[in-house]
Here is the input.
Amino acid sequence: AKGSFEHNDAQVSSHCRRGAASENMASSDGRLVGFASGAFGAVVAGAVTHPIDLVKVRMQLETGPSIGTEELIDTTNRMHRVTRHPSMLRTGWRVAMEEGVGALYNGLTASMARQVLYTGTRFGAYDISKGLLSSTGEGSMPFHKKVIAGLGSGAMGAMVGNPADLALVRMQADGRLPPAQRRKYVNVGHAVVTIAKEEGVCSLWRGCLPTVNRAMVVTASQLAVYDQAKLEIRQATGWGNGLPLQASASFAAGVVAALTSTPMDVAKTRLMDMKALPDGTKPYRGTMDCITKTLYNEGFFAIYRGLGPILARQLPLNVVQFLSVEWCVNLYTTLNKA
Here is the structure.
């Protein structure tokens, strides 16, 4: 096997051409390496960027004028009251000052569990999907097939990782609630068990639809764009499969993933954190209802709230994640040849 995350469009299918005696073993190895390398890369990247992710969640949960500072602005001799929401740096500083520096790592255990389940699954499924979609004699896989593989694998990863994702959002958001309303989850295991006991097992998949929608967009943007960017950059520059090529492709994939997924991410965060209103109804009925109400009540830029920390997280996360995956794949290749 030449690697689980297929960057040159021939690695996954090579497992199937080793002969009948080793075909099943090769296929099994490919799935395992795809899962393991994706999970390892995501855990490393997630640990590095966790404080930025927490700041993003806090920013996305801020609604209404009460959470910002109001200023009177003179426009054409008329005074308008404008609410300015805290910036990424100010939000992070406020969390550190009010809750302690350690609060920036609230939900870290849930983040690690999510990375293993969600990212490991989608990386492994992406390899398998590309192998199924590849045609005999086909050179470079067309970009639209990579996107299809990304959409499907993203959906699978989101469904598997949703309980950990739900725990992560709640643990990161807990500090913004009044002390009497805080959930006070100790770790991801405690969070999942508590949610299942108090709200029912099915509630662990609350927000699953927006999570799946976001994951499909992110995975198609991230993995398919990374694959395609490597191909295009290699052809344009002649670079080999080394650090400059991998870092450049990772950067491009991170920008595209952040821009395309932020509205879905805002909806996912709010749906997962929402509580019933005094009359027993929920603030949002679903993804589109959440996005529509946010647009109507808070304006267009509200659905891109948190874009700054998303970019600040996605870019280094992508670089660290894909470099880690490439390292795992190269290590597997070297050991497999030995």
Summary: Confidence is low (pLDDT under 50) at residues 1-27, 65-76. Residues 16 and 23 are 6 Å apart (CA to CA). DSSP finds nine helices and two strands in the chain. The radius of gyration is 22 Å.
